[in-house]
Amino acid sequence: MENQLLQLSWKDPGSKKLDNKLHGLCSYMAMFPPGLPRHFIEQYSKKGEVVLDPFSGRGTTVLEACLMERIGMGNDRNPLAHLLTKAKSNLPSKKRAIDRINELQEEFNLEKNDINSEKDNIKMLFHYLTLKQLLFLKKNLRWKEKNVDSFITAMIMGIIHGGSEGYLSIKMPNTFSMSQNYIKKYIKTHNLQKPKRDVFEILKKRLEKYNESPRIKGKAYNLDVRNIYSIKDNSVDLIITSPPYTKVIRYGQFNWIRLWFLDKKAKDIDGKLFFTQSIDRYSKFIFDTLKELKRVLKPNKKLILIVGDIKEKNLAEIVWERCAKPLGFILVDNIEDRINDSSKVSKIWGAKKGNATKIDRILVLEK
């Protein structure tokens, strides 16, 4: 297994040199490196074919598929993940993006904005001018309808909080949002000052670093993975995905600041997303998910499942025995991928090391 692992292209130190900078549009919890889907897209699909990620997260698989001249399709019930996938599946040109930012900047200068009605948990994060700009953009960006606005909104998600001059908030982690009480105490203890940041100028500067968009356009859906009715039977050539593990991440809670900008409440999002410690409930969810994925996958095509161990349990083995095998999938390969702790989010703001998985197991299944 070790020799096989060394041959996998995403483990090659040079693999990161192939990563398009658009992958870094916004950080996201539990994301896998672009080299991983790139490896399997190259191995199991051809140009023009459809590659699906039904738990698309920040849209890594979708963007990589489009860059490789496949049709990248992504689905995620989390509105933040849906936005990021939507932005990467249909990217505007740099010129169109900069023109739209300039247009919004001119409109902002003509409009009066009041921040007094905003809640204290948001006002404590941003300088009053920065917050005025954010509120204006929150109101005027039509990210659900316009792809250029989706891209700009996704850019804002990437810069809305972080620890350097390229971010809009007080100094804090970029990958996830700490709890409101923790932030409040941290600000007081360390006497943090809200930096005066111009959202429009930071967006324009950040735009300069991105590569041009791929020629191929993809698609993004915001559906329950157990019923992705917008995708036809036997229409997908390759599926690459990492389903949720058992009770590991609260995506709403850890992204409450970004969700505020999208007019969503963290509790509402966490209430909709699957989250359990029960192996039986988890197995039922994955069984129903794989049944739906089998429906959309073409015969004799591959389904790549990245499943992390949890609490010393081989969750991939459970997924195979209880879910994939009973549905008639063929097990082509079972790859063990040991995760380097440095690649996981573990120590930010003095936080103790988390419970991130130490081993990912990659099941290569065939319909």
Structure characterization notes:
About 40% of the residues lie in helices and about 15% in strands. It is an alpha/beta fold. It has 2 domains: about 1-90 and about 215-365, 3-Layer(aba) Sandwich (Rossmann fold), CATH 3.40.50; about 95-205, no CATH class. It has a 7-stranded mixed sheet with strand order 3-2-1-4-5-7-6.
What is the count of β-strands? Answer: 7
Helix % is 25-40%
If you average the pLDDT, what whole number results? Answer: 87
In terms of structural class, how would the helical and strand content be classed? alpha/beta
CATH class of the largest domain: Alpha Beta
Would you identify the CATH H-level superfamily of the largest domain? Vaccinia Virus protein VP39
> What best-fitting shape do the alpha-carbon axes yield?
globular
Task: Give the SSE layout.
Blueprint: H1 2-6, H2 35-44, E1 50-53, H3 60-67, E2 71-75, H4 79-89, H5 94-110, H6 120-123, H7 128-140, H8 147-159, H9 180-190, H10 199-207, E3 219-221, E4 236-241, H11 256-261, H12 266-272, H13 279-296, E5 297-308, H14 315-324, E6 330-338, E7 359-366
Parallel strand pairs: 1-2, 1-4, 2-3, 4-5
Antiparallel strand pairs: 5-7, 6-7
Helix pairs in contact: 4-8, 5-8, 5-10, 8-10, 13-14
